[in-house]
């Protein structure tokens, strides 16, 4: 049992977390003196397991919620045809539209959405209680953290099949790819570490001790840094990706979970679940330069640099806050599904994909109008999402 799951007896509850679990009902969970909402998975009954549901609401969750990486993929494991879009590389031939990969905690799989049609074209089985996802566009791979089985599933996005499984630390949640250095960074919540995977051979290359229950992770390739949220210490650990050592620790808000880095490398944005804020980090000095008040229980965050926007999933009130990142102010609030968690942006098409944990779907937002366009049914308990 841990932050989100009461799954296994080997999971010890950290002393700073206290919660009561009533199957099928919603309960408040207390972290220290702050009452916040968090999503918990409990062992399912036979009937629930057959239906693919095993969660109760005490509210929240998404860790690998970064912007997602836009790439191109071809083919589908389910055999569905992929919609075609113009080839921006100038070859003159159409290519498949980017796909949104949605991690479903309770059904232990990944739903693949064709972003041109907003329909699920494939479902990929992965490990136990998967949560986070990150895309390596160069090698056409997706990395999925399996919180319940302490490993990472590596998906070939050309075939939509798992090609390897990498054992990591205990309780992995967030994940991010450093494409330039050929590394994948995995936040091991229960283990208090960050596992570093070598993408050349899909093996564990390094383990970095960060403590404080690491949760979300984002990589700044230009500066050679990985930013890791630590929910127990209300801080962000900064890892030098050249040495894989912690170089700095930045105090932020209460219960930091999601993190995203601006492509320019000048700012990092951190969602603070218990204080209902977003901390803006100046990456030059690694200090908080601004604090933005958003909705209740903010979790996932995605950036659209083309519009100077950040999108924050507020799990406690079923909305997405839209932030103008030039002014660091909230300019809109978009209603979405039940318990939004993960966020991924698709700037080229002006779309934002938000996972709704308790309604088992994905809300698609029109970024130009700040309104929900459609809802895509996916698997049970969708959490992390990435585009590639």
Mean pLDDT, all residues: 82
Number of strands: 35
CATH superfamily label of the domain at 68-296 and 365-387: YVTN repeat-like/Quinoprotein amine dehydrogenase
What form results from the Cα inertia axes?
Answer: globular
Class derived from helix and strand content: mainly beta
CATH architecture of the domain at 68-296 and 365-387: 7 Propeller
CATH topology of the domain at 68-296 and 365-387: Methylamine Dehydrogenase, Chain H
Distance between the termini: 32 Å
Largest sheet: 4 strands, antiparallel
- Spans of at least 5 consecutive residues whose pLDDT stays below 50 are 1-94
CATH class of the domain at 68-296 and 365-387, please?
Mainly Beta
Walk me through this protein's architecture.
The chain has 388 residues and is an all-beta fold. It has a domain at 68-296 and 365-387: Methylamine Dehydrogenase, Chain H (7 Propeller). The chain is 2% helix and 52% strand. The chain has 1 helix and 35 strands. It has one helix spanning 46-51, and strands spanning 17-19, 29-31, 34-36, 38-41, 55-58, 84-85, 95-96, 99-104, 109-114, 119-125, 130-136, 141-146, 151-156, 161-167, 172-178, 183-188, 193-198, 203-209, 214-220, 225-230, 235-240, 245-251, 256-261, 267-272, 277-282, 287-293, 298-304, 309-314, 319-324, 329-335, 340-346, 351-356, 361-366, 371-377, 382-387. It has a 4-stranded antiparallel β-sheet with strand order 10-9-8-35, with no helix packed on it. It starts with 16 loop residues before the first strand and ends with a strand.
């Amino acid at each position: 049992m841990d932050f989100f799951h009461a799954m296994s007896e080997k999971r010890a509850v950290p002393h700073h977390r206290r919660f009561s679990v009533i199957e099928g009902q919603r309960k408040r969970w207390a972290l220290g003196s702050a009452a916040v909402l968090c999503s918990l998975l409990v062992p399912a009954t036979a009937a629930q397991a057959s239906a693919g549901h095993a969660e109760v609401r005490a509210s929240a969750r998404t860790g690998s919620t970064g912007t997602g990486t836009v790439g191109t993929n071809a083919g589908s494991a389910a055999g569905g045809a992929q919609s075609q879009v113009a080839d921006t590389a100038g070859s003159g031939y159409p290519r498949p539209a980017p796909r949104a990969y949605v991690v479903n905690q309770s059904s232990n799989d990944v739903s693949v959405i064709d972003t041109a049609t907003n329909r699920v074209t494939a479902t990929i089985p992965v490990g136990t209680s998967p949560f986070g996802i990150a895309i390596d566009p160069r090698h056409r791979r997706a990395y999925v953290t399996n919180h319940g089985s302490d490993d990472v599933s590596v998906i070939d996005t050309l075939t939509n099949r798992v090609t390897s499984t990498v054992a990591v630390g205990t309780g992995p949640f967030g994940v991010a790819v450093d494409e330039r250095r050929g590394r994948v960074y995995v936040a091991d919540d229960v283990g208090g570490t960050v596992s570093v995977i070598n993408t050349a051979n899909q093996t564990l290359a390094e383990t970095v001790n960060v403590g404080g229950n690491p949760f979300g992770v984002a990589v700044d390739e230009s500066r050679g840094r990985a930013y890791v949220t630590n929910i127990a210490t209300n801080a962000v650990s900064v890892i030098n990706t050249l040495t894989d050592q912690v170089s700095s620790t930045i105090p932020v808000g209460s219960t930091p979970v999601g993190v995203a880095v601006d492509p320019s490398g000048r700012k990092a944005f951190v969602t603070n679940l218990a204080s209902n804020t977003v901390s803006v980090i100046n990456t030059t000095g690694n200090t908080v330069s601004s604090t933005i008040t958003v909705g209740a229980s903010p979790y996932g965050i995605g950036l659209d640099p083309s519009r100077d926007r950040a999108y924050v999933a507020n799990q406690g009130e079923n909305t997405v806050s839209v932030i103008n990142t030039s002014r660091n102010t909230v300019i809109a609030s978009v209603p979405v599904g039940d318990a939004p968690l993960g966020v991924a942006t698709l700037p080229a098409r002006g779309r934002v994909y938000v996972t709704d944990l308790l309604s088992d779907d994905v809300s698609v937002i029109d970024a130009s109008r700040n309104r929900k366009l459609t809802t895509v049914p996916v698997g049970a308990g969708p959490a992390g999402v990435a585009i590639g």
